[in-house]
Design a protein that fits this description.
single chain; 6-stranded antiparallel β-sheet; 4-stranded mixed β-sheet; 29% strand; globular
Length: 294
């Protein structure tokens, strides 16, 4: 297991922002995940789990705890074939793009929506990630998790309580170890073409040329966050090097050397302006760790 102290989190987030973590651990097996959890307990420190570091804003002061990154070493995929499809089990560290590409190659349909999401499977299950009309809950059967008490449990789909960007895993601070899914057979060429089309739509509409944490705000009921922000006159609004994307107002981007404090202030400014204009509360989808002065 890789272990470092005072590890800069800017190197482990898609925002490219964040101060040092007191401890950084990168377990490469289920046993090492359990060891990492025990290490945090022995030190009496909080821990936070990351995969690719997407959907995350770390404070400039860093994180006075243990960052546990699940990735390399926990990327195995197994396929159990049946007459009409397959049962697929994948470890939490596999990237969504890699899993989608493997399923497409095998001619399995139902995961095309996830091919362009910049994260790992563990985080995707925990937040019920989705895009272009698909969500994890549409194809998952169960997840194997490690509880805060160190117990390994298998939760079926109903027990996962998957909702819009939420699950029981988040509420109980469990760690996803793997997920099991059901997929139908499909036409490989059609699956790959769908993935190409979705990825092109993503490139056309999202500011992939700048570091970001993905969609900054959850979708408010009856509205679209990006449209509310645009209608409030905030397209291109900047605080330092943090900016509301000119390409898609639902994204806050790092134009070069943005600090977490700048991003945080911009998010609060956007929330206030949208509330003042439309009385709609925008809730951040981006998770924030560390000290932001509140």
């Amino acid at each position: 297991m890789i272990r470092r102290e005072q590890e800069p989190l800017s190197e482990h987030t898609t925002f490219r922002i964040g101060g040092p973590a007191a401890f950084y651990l990168a377990p490469e097996s289920e046993d090492e995940v359990r060891e990492a959890l025990a290490f945090a307990g022995e030190k009496g420190l909080p821990y936070y789990l990351i995969g690719r570091g997407s959907n995350l804003l770390c404070s400039d002061e860093g994180y006075d705890g243990v960052i546990i990154e699940i990735g390399k070493g926990m990327e195995q995929i197994s396929i159990e074939w049946a007459s009409e499809g397959a049962i697929v089990t994948a470890q939490a560290g596999v990237s969504l793009s890699s899993l989608a590409a493997r399923l497409a190659k095998e001619g399995l349909t139902g995961f095309e929506f996830a091919g362009g999401i910049p994260g790992t499977l563990g985080g995707a299950i925990a937040m019920n990630a989705g895009a272009y009309g698909g969500e994890i809950k549409d194809c998952i059967l169960s997840a194997r998790v490690l509880t805060e008490q160190g117990e390994i449990r298998t939760l079926d789909k109903a027990e996962l309580e998957l909702g819009y960007r939420t699950s029981v895993i988040q509420r109980e601070s469990a760690i996803v170890l793997s997920g099991t899914f059901a997929f139908q057979r499909g036409d490989t060429e059609k699956i790959q073409e769908t993935m190409r089309e979705l990825n092109q739509r993503r490139r056309d509409k999202q500011p992939l040329e700048y570091p970001s944490a993905g969609s900054t705000f959850k979708r408010p009921e009856g509205h679209f966050a990006g449209k509310l922000i645009e209608d409030a006159g905030l397209r291109g609004y900047r605080v330092g090097d943090a900016q509301v994307s000119e390409k898609h107002c639902g994204f806050v981007v790092n134009r070069g050397h943005a600090t977490a404090a700048e991003v945080y202030r911009l998010i609060r400014d956007v929330q206030k302006k949208v509330w003042d204009e439309f009385q709609v509360k925008l809730e951040p989808e981006v998770r924030m760790i560390g000290n932001f002065g509140e």
